[in-house]
Each structure stands twice: as structure tokens, then as C-alpha cells.
Write a structure and sequence with these properties.
heterodimer, A: 7-stranded mixed sheet, 0% helix, globular, B: mainly beta, 7-stranded mixed sheet
């Protein structure tokens, strides 16, 4: 099973600042990596797939990069609506696995 | 618009059974893989099971293999999860998801399963 480690566990930033979230895989997943956002009391929402492709309706302020074992989700200018928990997910091998999440807080 | 509506959750004793359902609308259900993903209270996400468009390809997490069974009815636009021999650690919010090349691009609101004596 591929283990995904997200860091930091919690990231404190201010509105308008840039946020960089990381995800590291225990073995190469090529670019078979997705990012999700989950706000309190809501279902997760797909942000990025194939490491860098934005899902439908996701603003350009969200960008993904990386390949192999190291990946980054960048939010270029944080808005209040962006404060949430973010998960990465690999889908190169079954079982598909998620990271433990990064909480983005003010 | 696209909707995924789960039902069937509830309180069950360890060793018991439940059948979850997911009613899909707003898209061509038979054209997509579908999955169940769960989230224990205050915890992260776990991909439980996935089923192909025709139902011919099915996968399970090791944690549920042999106890859970996924199925679908393309004539009814519905996805199911039969859960047997339930354990306390199966307690979670169970989400029905539509799959886009192995990522969950749409999620339902979830149905809560609580396993407790």
C-alpha cells in the first residue's frame, strides 16, 4: 500500500498570502495524484487531478505540481473561503490511498 | 443538476448488517465507475470499494474484503454497499462518489453508519 504523508499538518496563514501544501508518496505514483478540499460539515471537493489539472470550476488560484513522490498544492492568494482541510490521494495502485490531511487555518 | 443521495445508514450492533444505497441523477450513470469512500468521525478519508460501469470489475480495501459487497443497478441509476459482520471500526460517514479516471469528482452528502453495542 502506498502511504501518502502530508506536511505540515497545520498551516497558519493570513488572507491574501500564498499557501504551499506538500504531499510525499512512499513510492512513485508518477502524476496519478489528486487534491481535495473539505470544509467543516461538507463533503470533500475535487480540486486537482493528474497532479496539475484543475477540476471543473476550480479557480486558477489553485495550482498543483510535482511528479514521482513529491507534490505541491499552491493557493496563490488566500481567501476566507479557502480555509479548510486539504487531502492528497494517489490512484496509481489499488488500494487508492489518501494523505492524513493538512489543515489550513488563519 | 448532478446529485448523489445516500441512504441506509444507522445504528447497528457489532456483527450486524446494513445495506447502503446511493441514488444518482443528472448524469449518465452507466458511463461511470462509482465508489464508496468513508470517513470516521474526526478522521481522514478511506477508499472502501469501487465498481466499473458494467459491474465486471470490483475492488475492495483490505479492511472490508470478505465482509462488504458493492453492486449497482444501471436501470435504476443506483449504487449499493452491502455491509456484513460490521465492526466498531466501520463507524464512519459513507460517501457515494462518481469516479473520473480514478478520482472522485462528485460526492454525495454521506450517510452515517454507527456500529456500537
Amino acid at each position: 500500500e502506498i502511504v501518502l504523508t502530508q506536511f505540515p499538518a497545520t498551516l497558519s496563514v493570513s488572507p491574501g498570502e500564498r499557501a504551499t501544501l506538500s504531499c510525499r508518496a512512499s513510492q512513485s505514483v508518477s502524476t496519478n495524484l489528486a487534491w481535495y478540499q473539505q470544509k467543516p460539515g461538507q463533503s470533500p471537493r475535487l480540486l486537482i487531478y493528474a497532479a496539475s489539472t484543475r477540476a471543473t470550476g476550480i479557480p486558477a488560484s489553485f495550482s498543483g505540481s510535482g511528479s514521482g513522490t513529491d507534490f505541491t498544492l499552491t493557493i496563490s492568494s488566500l481567501q476566507s473561503a479557502d480555509f479548510a482541510v486539504y487531502y492528497c490521494q494517489q490512484y496509481i495502485n489499488w488500494p487508492y490511498t489518501f494523505g492524513q490531511g493538512t489543515r489550513l487555518e488563519i | 443538476q448532478l446529485q448523489l443521495v445516500e441512504s441506509g445508514g444507522g445504528l447497528v450492533r457489532p456483527g450486524g448488517s446494513l445495506r447502503l444505497s446511493c441514488a444518482a441523477s443528472g448524469f449518465s450513470f452507466s458511463d461511470y465507475y462509482m465508489s464508496w469512500i468513508r470517513q470516521a468521525p474526526g478522521k481522514g478519508l478511506e477508499w472502501v470499494s469501487s465498481i466499473s460501469m458494467s459491474g465486471g470489475t470490483i475492488q475492495y480495501a483490505d479492511s472490508v474484503k470478505g465482509r462488504f459487497s458493492i453492486s449497482r443497478d444501471n436501470t435504476e441509476n443506483s449504487l449499493y454497499l452491502q455491509m456484513n459482520s460490521l465492526r466498531v471500526e466501520d463507524t464512519a460517514l459513507y460517501y457515494c462518489t462518481r469516479d473520473l479516471i480514478d478520482v472522485a469528482d462528485y460526492w454525495g452528502q454521506g450517510t452515517l453508519v454507527t456500529v456500537s453495542s
